[in-house]
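Retry 2 of 3 after timeout on previous attempt. Resubmitting structure tokens to design endpoint.
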């Protein structure tokens, strides 16, 4: 009996782990090489002085993509991974004093908007119906399949989607579309915010991205019983049960080639041979670090594309509890366009940033000491192009504290028990995300979906790519779908 083929995965991010599981189920011998001492990439965790923090992604949608991995392995998902659906997706705070609760129930949500802003509930329902239409047209083509294979375009589903292309609203921006749907500027701002879910600018990004509210509102938002990091830990447990080997503290130095064919990977001057290699590393570093000796194989146009935005995160242990806050909270800036201009045009941080505040201890009380809360406080910032980040961070910290203290009517400074900070520089150094961008390239053009790097190399046989910097994009659901696409391409 011949030995099973060997697959080598570079990076134990969520997409790398999912790819490893899918290939193991197909009969491959799989080994994963990770530079850090822990798995998960951005989806990791840490503790400080009795407070636990999920370090990265904090919104969990489309749990079926996690469950699918257990089912493929013949396991019962609930034996490994449990979660609950949120009745309240997020709470929103505006500078004019308006407070909105985004209920998971669409009718209740629409009524809330009408009551608080006067925007008709029927307009919200119409918008969500449009979001659903865009999803139904794009999902099977743009998200679940490779856009770089002729076979994709020969499917009847694809033909039907192409015939309905006009309905995905690709030729105007998100903001322009939202201004047509709504009269109230607060609700336009509300739906413009979804551009930040993939690190883009609503004033430039195509209105096709108005599909995102459907993912959150229709499919729902969830919270894993043990926190976001449990997604990583339970998938690693599943992977190990399938015989997958993880090599931590083991950075890959080079993808070894024999001509234009993968030979394996090189670590610590040792070549580990494999039949195929899947890179879960950011595509920019995959080429510039792991294939640096073969510049003629670099897809320069793709690598030179505009990067997505990054993030500045303050992890604060707070010696108090706030009943008006929930798991997810947003504090909007007064001038949204000015904020995005600062991020994208001036490459700096606006003095009045929109603040995202996540508090996992609302649903997992042991994440903070009694009568305390663990605050994950994030603002969108530009990718790192050499700014004076120490100065920017100091100014942003003061502005964030002033804004939260004013809107919550309490001096937050006095409540901070401990602090850690993550900025674009440390995001790059810890997760190999070029310039600290969270989602690879931005989606600030109508053809962005087609311009992302493919999941399979067209120049190197046996080389594949997964993760947020390649098709179909960033965020947990899309990273898991990239793994699915890779496994199908391997077939």
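Retry 2 succeeded. Sequence:
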């Amino acid at each position: 009996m011949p030995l099973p083929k060997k697959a080598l995965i570079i990076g134990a991010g969520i997409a790398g782990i999912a790819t490893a599981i899918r290939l193991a189920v197909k009969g491959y011998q799989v080994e994963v090489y990770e530079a850090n001492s822990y798995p998960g990439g951005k989806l990791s965790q840490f503790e400080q002085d009795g407070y636990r923090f999920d370090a990265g992604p904090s919104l969990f949608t489309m749990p079926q993509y996690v469950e699918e991995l257990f089912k493929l392995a013949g396991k019962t998902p609930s034996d490994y991974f449990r979660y609950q659906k949120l009745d309240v997706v997020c709470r929103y705070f505006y500078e004019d004093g308006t407070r909105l609760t985004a209920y998971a129930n669409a009718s209740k949500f629409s009524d809330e908007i009408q009551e608080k802003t006067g925007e008709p509930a029927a307009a919200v329902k119409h918008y969500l119906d449009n979001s659903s239409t865009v999803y139904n047209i794009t999902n099977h083509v743009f998200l679940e399949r490779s856009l770089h294979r002729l076979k994709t375009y020969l499917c009847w589903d694809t033909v039907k989607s192409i015939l309905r292309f006009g309905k995905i609203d690709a030729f105007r921006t998100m903001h322009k579309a939202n201004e047509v749907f709504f009269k109230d500027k607060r609700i336009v701002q509300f739906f413009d915010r979804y551009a930040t879910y993939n690190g883009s600018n609503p004033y430039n990004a195509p209105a096709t991205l108005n599909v995102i509210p459907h993912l959150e509102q229709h499919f729902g938002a969830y919270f894993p019983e043990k926190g976001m990091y449990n997604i990583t830990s339970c998938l690693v447990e599943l992977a190990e049960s399938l015989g997958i080997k993880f090599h931590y503290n083991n950075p890959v130095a080079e993808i070894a080639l024999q001509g234009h064919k993968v030979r394996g990977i090189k670590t610590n001057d040792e070549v580990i041979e494999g039949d195929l290699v899947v890179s879960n590393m950011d595509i920019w570093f995959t080429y510039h670090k792991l294939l640096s000796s073969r510049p003629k194989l670099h897809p320069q146009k793709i690598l030179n594309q505009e990067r997505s935005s990054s993030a500045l995160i303050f992890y604060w242990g707070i010696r108090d509890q706030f009943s008006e806050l929930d798991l997810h909270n947003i504090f909007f800036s007064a001038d949204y366009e000015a904020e995005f201009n600062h991020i994208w045009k001036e490459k700096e941080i606006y003095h009045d940033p929109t603040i995202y505040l996540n508090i996992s201890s609302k649903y997992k009380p042991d994440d903070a000491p009694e009568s305390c809360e663990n605050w994950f406080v994030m603002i969108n910032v530009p990718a790192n192009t050499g700014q004076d980040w120490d100065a920017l961070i100091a100014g942003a910290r003061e502005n964030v504290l002033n804004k939260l203290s004013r809107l919550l009517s309490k001096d937050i400074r006095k409540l901070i028990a401990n602090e850690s900070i993550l900025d674009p520089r440390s995001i790059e150094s810890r997760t190999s995300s070029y310039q600290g961008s969270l989602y690879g390239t931005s989606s600030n053009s109508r053809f962005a979906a087609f311009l992302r790097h493919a999941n399979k190399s067209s120049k190197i046989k046996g080389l594949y790519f997964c993760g947020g910097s390649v098709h179909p994009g960033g965020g947990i659901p899309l990273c898991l779908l990239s793994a699915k696409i890779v496994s199908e391409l391997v077939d």
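Attempt log closed. The chain has a mean pLDDT of 93.
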